[in-house]
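Handout, section 4.2: multi-component inputs.
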Amino acid sequence: MINRIALAGCGNVGTALLELLHEKKDELARKYNFHFEVTMITDLFKGTVADPDGLDLKEVLNQLHTCNSLKAIGEKEGSFEEVLLYSNATMLAEATPTNLETGEPGLTFIRTALKNGISATMTNKGPVAVAMEELLNLATENNAQLKYEGVIMSGTPLVNLIQTGLAGCKVLKAEGILNGTTNFMLTQMSHGESFDEALKDAQDRGYAETDPSGDVEGWDCAVKVSILSQILYGEKIDVKDVDRTGITDVTKEEVVQAKLDGTPVKLISSIEHTEEGKLIAKVQPIKVRNTHPLASINGATNAITLTTDNLGDITLTGPGAGRRETGQALLTDLIEMGI
Amino acid sequence: MINRIALAGCGNVGTALLELLHEKKDELARKYNFHFEVTMITDLFKGTVADPDGLDLKEVLNQLHTCNSLKAIGEKEGSFEEVLLYSNATMLAEATPTNLETGEPGLTFIRTALKNGISATMTNKGPVAVAMEELLNLATENNAQLKYEGVIMSGTPLVNLIQTGLAGCKVLKAEGILNGTTNFMLTQMSHGESFDEALKDAQDRGYAETDPSGDVEGWDCAVKVSILSQILYGEKIDVKDVDRTGITDVTKEEVVQAKLDGTPVKLISSIEHTEEGKLIAKVQPIKVRNTHPLASINGATNAITLTTDNLGDITLTGPGAGRRETGQALLTDLIEMGI
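Output:
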């Protein structure tokens, strides 16, 4: 059987997915019995192309790398739904830009796929933050699958760990370093850089945006805690209800002293399901005791410790960003949804 | 649909599985749509009981906890295969004692189940070490599943991580702390205990056996490396071909000094698939640089770092032993094999 893949959003992540699919075509067939064609690619700027028999990935990548556009391959006219149905896709990979207020344009794309019984995976936090429950129900109603490995910790397979690796375990509490930019900055500050120097360093390396408030004020972490709440407990916490403190008031002196004291400062995102059934969601810079699994996580790395009933503490550490890493999140979901 | 579970081996781990199944019956139905009955339990010392309609788990556990025997429930006569077929089991959980030379008695039990199209999960390293390839082929031929989450790192879901979480990634190299006893001993030695004091401490806590050679000479790690080779690369490495050095020649002075130097001594088990297609398998005490993800793993904890093509380094940390932890490994496999 052939899986026919549609891709919505062909920026860094979408292009990385296409590269991985192209590079690994034989390996995926051999190792996972996963056979595929890419039958549709749509991007707001680069155009829309589709072929139910499969696009020529080599030509597509050549066009993307040389012209940053797909228009020379031939523009396919029509609404997203029309082209999706024309392409005969069996699964959608969604990697459009994130809008946390509306979830668009990804939300509409995913709704359209699921309504037509087409499974979907996304790395886009927007649709998950806005409408996760609706989308999961829509998937069930239409006998389709919905996956979202990439929305937290990029390709580091946290969602898979929670949903399959720990099946049968109850996660009582999760504590994570879920924002690589601020963890990099705190690491640099522990080496003696000021907040501003560390921020500039993070910006120079492409970790932090020109407007860094999403990272340093803890909003990015708060969104992730809100999504984690859905994944772990099936309950939505509004981002505004996360008890959130960023790292803007943390000084170099504090960070250096804490490291000397053996209790390094980390921006910890946490969610806990109390015995009374209450959810406690926090994002806070914390002096972590040296024996804590997160104390030694430095640089732009992400890590999460899940405290469980049957296994005690399980910690997963890996990259939290990157185009290839996030493309890998889509790839692993596609393989799992495959036939 | 009801999954009918047979259990072979009702020692610490098997009993822990029964406890988990009993405690979590409602949760498993609700969260995973996993409905089950335990229809057979067999143990060399405690007896064999079977009921195709499902045994009364409360009564079974009561008998185990009060008499350490199942004989009062009524002994079911017949060969393993006869009772297994009578019990109408759809899946086997195998937790008999490990024999690394013959794989028995687990190997025969698993062969019998698979030949009859009954899926199996095991925590027993014996059958995997002796006949993994044969068993995987037998499973495929008979349209059954074979799982073995518990054979490395107990319930910490390493096998799941490799096989599903990292689907699409190539693992170039694995380096792990895969023996909790020796890691506990090295941690105690870094605090100033001698080898003998650390060993006694490990024995007092139930980590080390009276004859500790399997742990301290690195044999347990070598077996795990050999199994990892199968899981990661589908290639068998004989345990004797693992380049193996234990910790028997490691002194307190070395360990204390290495810790002061910021390069703690760890017993690292590793397997690497070189670009030339060669497998390099080692078990060695190594001074690990302080920034390595395994440097901060202390006590009886296990951890493994997988170096991958798409995600860089992924580290998974968790318990490597324990009755409830190993029972959880069986449970997660049963849920995944479930219908």
